[in-house]
Amino acid sequence: MFGLSLSTAKRSFDSLSEQEILGLAISSEEDDARIYLAYADQLRATAPQSAKVFEDMAEVEHTHRNMLIEMHRERFGERIPLIRREHVRGFYDRKPDWLRKNQTLDQIRTEAELMEQGAYRFYMAAAQRTSDAGIRKLLGDLALAEQGHEEIAGMLGEKHVTEEAKTEEDEGARRQFILTYVQPGLAGLMDGSVSTLAPIFAAAFATGDTWSTFLIGLSASVGAGISMGFTEAAHDDGKLSGRGSPIKRGLASGIMTALGGLGHALPYLIPHFWTATITAAIVVFFELWAIAFIQNRYMETPFWRAAMQVVLGGSLVLAAGVLIGQG
Questions:
Q1: Tens of pLDDT, residue by residue, the chain (327 residues)
Q2: CATH number of the domain bearing residue 155
Q3: Of 283, 296, 176, which is closest to residue 238 (Cα–Cα)?
Q4: Are 22 and 46 members of one domain?
Q5: Using CA of residue 125, residue 126, residue 131, residue 136, what is the dihedral sign?
Q6: This model's pTM is above 0.70
Q7: How is 152-207 classified by DSSP, letter by letter?
Q8: How far apart are CA 287 and CA 290, in angstroms?
Q9: Beta bridge partners of 88
Q10: What are the two backbone dihedrals, phi and then psi, of residue 186, each rounded to the nearest 5 degrees?
């Protein structure tokens, strides 16, 4: 019953009066201006040129809001109806605040472009569906205004964000991504993959029991993941180093550590010993080469140096586990 009442509470766009359409347009302009200012605040420290673009776009939204308020005052008086886009079925949506946080610069730019395009398409479609001449004209004017917003956004981008500034901002975002996610995740993957090789394969050859080996591998992987995650989160709060949120880094490190160990522990769910062991060895081969690739791709480590460090080191640990298990 409650879900039904929420669904039926929304009105169709065709049922709105001209005054309500103006009220809806005013509240939408206010929301978009607030979103652009939030983007500006988010980008000011890392991408100041792009932040200026969004400040100017918010100013444009405020200008159109004031124009709509004046139109409402002339035609309907001072009382603007309280109606927002979430009150109307089919109206273009905006993401809530918690989904807009921590977006990359490219994601923010794309979202702003979609905001303007979505508003334009909605007003044009709504204008075509109505037979009332006054509403049709009003919707058409709003559509043209939104199209103008998109053109202004392009001009503002050319004005404030040079190609050099955009390259610097993109490089800064990439560097932050590496420091917050790639570096701790790679350290965790290396630790989880290499450090669990010896105990897992030693247990396999010592017991010959795949289920016991899996349990040992599972406990070693989960334990190592928890340990690495807490260590990464606790040793650096990111304020001075600029490495970002300790929680994000801890999660990246802990999850990748656990996955690194589970990769060659899961094959021991196969009941046949040699099938499980050969499968685990194949998984280890791909794990080690994947680590070397990530080091080369993101950490700019020469590929063959990364291969020697990781693949050779991992192979030695694997051999040590097998020898210990057979002894």
A1: 334 444 456 787 678 787 887 788 888 889 888 988 988 888 887 778 878 888 888 888 888 788 889 878 888 889 998 888 788 876 656 666 655 666 766 677 777 777 777 778 767 866 776 666 776 777 787 777 777 666 655 555 555 555 665 666 566 677 778 788 888 888 888 888 888 888 888 888 888 899 999 999 899 899 988 988 888 888 776 655 667 788 888 899 899 999 988 988 999 999 999 999 999 989 888 888 888 888 877 776 777 777 777 777 777 877 887 788 776
A2: 1.20.1260.10
A3: 176
A4: yes
A5: negative
A6: no
A7: HHHHHHHHH--HHHHHHHHHHHHHHHIIIIIHHHHHHHHHHHHHTHHHHHHHHHHH
A8: 5
A9: 11
A10: -65, -40
The total number of structural domains in the chain stands at: 2
* 129, 99 Cβ separation under 8 angstroms: no
| Token pair for 18 | 């001209």
Amino acid, res. 64: H
Cβ contacts of 19 within 8 Å, gap of 6 or more = 72, 75, 76, 81
**In this structure, how many other beta carbons lie within 10 angstroms of the beta carbon of residue 256?**
24
Q: Work out the burial of residue 285: count CB atoms within 10 Å of its CB; fewer than 13 is exposed, 13-18 middle, 19 or more buried.
A: middle
Same domain (yes/no): 15, 43: yes
